[in-house]
Amino acid sequence: MSLEHRLEEVLQPVLGAVAVENLQRLTGGASRTTWAFEAVAGERRALILRTGAPDDIHAGMELEAQVQRRAAAAGAPVPHIVTASDSPAALGNPYLICDAIPGDTIVRRIFRGLDDAGRARLLRQCAEALAAVHRATVDGVGLTTPDDLAGWRARLDEIGDTTATFEWTFRRLADERPDPSPMVLVHGDFRMGNLIVDQSGLAAVLDWELTHIGERYEDLAWFCIRAWRFGAPEMLGAGGLGSVETFLRTYEEAAGVDVDRSVFRWWLTVATLRWGVICRHQAERHLSGETPSVELAAIGRRVSETEWDLLDLLSGKGPR
Length: 320
Fold this sequence. Notes:
Blueprint: H1 3-15, E1 19-28, E2 33-41, E3 43-51, H2 61-73, E4 81-85, E5 95-99, H3 107-112, H4 116-135, H5 148-159, H6 164-175, E6 183-186, E7 195-198, E8 201-205, E9 212-215, H7 216-222, H8 244-255, H9 261-287, H10 294-300, H11 303-314
Antiparallel strand pairs: 1-2, 2-3, 3-5, 4-5, 6-9, 7-8
């Protein structure tokens, strides 16, 4: 049976009898594959299908759907979930189906379409969206509460390779770890590239597979590392849209909380180290022969970039 026919059977209990048309694969990453299609039942409805094999790193599809519904109830802009299942029986892998949201996710194209006012508006919307995510209630959902620093230590140890800068950073972070702050829903990968942007600004927050319970600082810091500026100058340290300080002040106003700048800096160092370990891990996939790829090799070369940023952060410098 074709994927179209299997999709029609999956959608029938929630949408009634539909015909699936114009199915096209959009991406096929390491963890999730994304398809676009139309469900036709008199009117056409543009939908998105995401599939992915279960693993011990990413949230299951049903859990991801529950979290997005909770975030939507708190005011975060997320696609409407149509249906989701962790069972591979229907489509060969667990799946999530949601409404398609018009807009763009390609960051350099988004940047080209923004003037100063547009950047400021989008930065404010990102801060407000993140505040809404962190307000969401997650009682009974079943999310984990991982130790971010220990997790990336383990990922680096799996490779059996490290750098002096990484080791120094791990030690400094362990020695200077701040007292924990209240736990909230964490998106886990809130950044430019995982946001849909249209003419009015932020349209939707995507890619919730790394969601978990943690400290709000984790999301705030991840948004502000160099990689997600996509070449924008350091003065636009918050996602390439505006200053980090403006982003944090706007978040404070939207969330009704104070953000401790020294704690944020600790988490920014963790986030930068996280990206460095990811770069090294991607390089290892190429170097080991597991996945020969020029792209993975190029990502590996960014390890030195993260080392520079870590040294800046540890010496008291960093984005503004």
